[in-house]
Amino acid sequence: MSTSWPLWEVFVRGKRGLNHVHVGSLHAPDAEMAVRNARDVYTRRNEGVSIWVVPAEAITASSPDEKDPFFEPAGDKVYRHPTFYAIPDDVPHL
Amino acid sequence: MSFDNAYESLIDHEDTHWAFGTGFHTALEGVDREVPATVDRADLVAYCLMLGDDSLVLSQRLAAWCSRAPELEEDIALANIALDLLGQARLLLTRAGEVEGAGRDEDALAYLRDEREFRNVHLAEIDCGPGPGGDFATTIVRLLVFSSWKIAQFSRLRGSADPVLAAVAAKGLKELAYHRDHAAQWAVRLGDGTEESHRRMVAAVDRVWPFVDELFHASAVEARLAGVAVDPAELRSEVDGVLDAVFEASGLTRPEPIPTAFVAGQAGREGVHTEAMGFLVAEMQHLHRSMPGAVW
Known about the structure:
Chain A has helices spanning 31-42, 67-71, and strands at residues 7-13, 21-27, 50-55. By secondary structure, chain A is α+β, with helices and mostly antiparallel strands. Chain A has a three-stranded antiparallel β-sheet, covered by helices on one side. In chain A, a hairpin with a 7-residue loop joins β1 and β2 (21-27). Chain B has one domain: Ferritin, CATH 1.20.1260.10. Chain B contains ten helices and no strands. In chain B, α5 crosses α7. The longest helix of chain B has 29 residues, at 72-100.
């Protein structure tokens, strides 16, 4: 068969979560079926309440070869961290 | 927020079970299981068996697709639908055994009754694939008709005088809504797809249609159980409306009604089944009957 279904990346948000989390990928003919397949494959065990699907080709990822120039320089710049003031306890999601 | 574990935000930390998949609740918790005094117990048992067998037999048919579906995701979708139906069957058969009071539980009813004691409609038992009996299109059309009919039936069953039936119907409706949606999505994509998929959908409707009329015939038991059971004749216009909408989007036409092939006035509800039923029951019951009392 020359026709195969495109790949979709699946993101699920839990009941108490604030953000969608990447849980995997699947194949589906189009967006509506992708959401339904994600519901069948990735929320079987009560994992979440919201699903996003994104065509895999829409995602641009950083290359592992560029890991050093991309991420190393941030490692030794202490002055970029906001560690010099106290966060009150009753501000959980700052 | 730590990002060590990608699933961390999905875990319900108050419910200390395994990694994820938490926050479960028992089915039918808090439902009154007393049989109302006005209800005839034998009739209620027969009705619960009818509804339970519908779901049990279709679940068995859908399970045959696991590992044979067109794609992996469809394997899981059909298996999930089969499991939903099996869950409904378990609740209904348990209720039948409980009301009967003869010590038969859901397993005894599912695995130790003979073919003529099953009370499902023929639509659930016919072979719609995989294999020579049909194909994916036939399974989808059968699922579409069955779940549309069950939604119409269960939405009225929520008002049943038996509290357990009402609770099972309320719970089942959410599952059935997804089953019908799944079947409708495929029906539209296949019906309005390529020439081959359209041809197969037309053949599928022709294959399934002789078994649709039976869904709207009231058996003697259902006629006696007014207030508890749903009158099947009431469901026809709603089901026709749903099927018309899906068929129009799929480029299909709803055929004229084909009268049920009753045998001396009897069909599935009276235990008279098609040739396929004997094979289905044998395969379903074989393991339990070979090893009585075995547990996993």
